Amino acid sequence: MPATAPHPALGVAHAATTRMQQLLYGAAWQPSAPERPEARPAAEVPADAGGLAGLTETVYRMSATG
What is the pLDDT averaged over residues 40-51? Predict the structure, then answer.
């Protein structure tokens, strides 16, 4: 069977979930990692997201992508 390009929504969903996991586990986390690392301290998450506004935007994108 011929291969088709993935739907654009798949790329958006993959990028959004990768970003969310990087917020939780650190920027070095990748979806292909064989195991889940320790979660970061909660205080680091808003700082890495660009403050509460950036964190809110990231969380909103997750729900909007869904």
Answer: 86
